[in-house]
Amino acid sequence: MKRNSLPFLEMSSRAAVEGPFQPGQEISWKTRETGFTLLETTIALLLMMIVALGSACMFSFSIYNNSGGSDRAVALALGQQALEILRNAKFNTSTTDPVLDAGTYVQAGVLRDGRQFTLTTTIDDDPSTAAVDVNPATTLKSITILVTPQSIGRGWASGAFGTVTLITQRARTDL
After folding, report:
1. Which domains does the chain have, with CATH numbers?
2. What is the pLDDT of residue 78?
């Protein structure tokens, strides 16, 4: 062996291919080569692609549900705001505020947070019947507020699932 040459370059290719190494035996550069085969790399890439597609699907699903939940929250806030106006209206023996007159009132095109809603308010002077009755001498009113989204795309919060209904009863304050 020459003094300036590297010992693993001096070995024969036969020593590098033969079985397990003995203690003190030099290892050639061929035996130290490790890496992934093309098949292993392809399988790993396929597994990573499946995981990435699964997480992208979950990301899309969460955006879909979060936007629907946001739209329902806006509809609920709009309904509560309308209900507070009716709760604060005067209703006693001497005065009944005109906003508490019996009937069905529809407000279309109500805009909140870039979305359009239809607000339907139904005030019934006789909650014991199925029909909407008008009776100025009533002491109890049933108030139903229905908020329906108009400009929401297809999704879980569209149609009947996006509609928010608030129902309450209001009695005269002087009773």
Report:
1. 72-171 (3.30.1300)
2. 94
